[in-house]
Amino acid sequence: MAPQTYTSIHLSKRPKTNIIPGETFEARNTRSYIPPVKIGEVMRGVAIGIIIASKSKSYPIGTHVTATAGWTEYAILKESDLQRVDIPKNGRITDVLGVLGMTGLTAYFGLLDIGKVRAGDFVVVSGAAGATGSIVGQIAKLKGAKVLGIAGSEEKVRWLKEELGFDDALCYKDEQFAAKFRGATKSAAKSSTSRSREQNHMLDSSSVEV
User: Fold this and answer.
1) φ, ψ of residue 148 in degrees (nearest 5)
2) Alpha-carbon distance 169 to 128, whole Å?
3) Separation of alpha carbons 14 and 36, rounded Å
4) How many other CB atoms are found less than 10 A from the CB of residue 3?
5) Res. 201 pLDDT band, cuts 50 70 90
6) DSSP of 94-160
7) pLDDT of 121-156, one tens digit each?
8) What is the separation of C-alpha 40 from the centre of its chain, rounded to a whole number of angstroms?
9) Whose CB among 2, 8, 130, 140 lies 3.0–4.6 Å from 145's, allowing a Cys bridge?
């Protein structure tokens, strides 16, 4: 049974520091797939939890689940809001918030369904040491692509090459970054195939002025 008091994080006011009206943000009349967090609402976020009280046959007490429960220690949720956590061998429950969750799905479908990467391709990953970028690079390697990662420190560069198996990685803060990037991508540009030229044509023809 949940305690009578518990901690939850609510949005109390909109941040204003260093925001210049009309310059920092630009108002656009576009719709979003999800509404903004309102003042007083629990901060939005995906969480892993354990069922401690339940009327559901599908989710009995003790079941590990994931849901958009927000930043709170306890939440009352509908059965339709929950997803059972199934951890593969050698996996950890926290992987559900990373490689087995939204981060992994973004990397997987973005690279394979949208990017359609395949063996022999040259893939450049910006933000390669981040949650999504690090997975993108590993999937690309598994598909037989050559991968160049871009990161913000030499420590991250070493991690990408030594731990994740990127073919190469560069630090964008390096004073020689532009020259090194040109050098690292020069061979890929020379060996571009008709497939890459076709993709570039498709991108050019679909671009619009905004």
Assistant:
1) -115, 125
2) 9
3) 11
4) 7
5) very low
6) GGGGTTTSHHHHHHHHIIIIIS---TT-EEEEETTTSHHHHHHHHHHHHTT-EEEEEESSHHHHHHH
7) 999 999 999 999 999 999 999 999 999 999 999 999
8) 27
9) 140
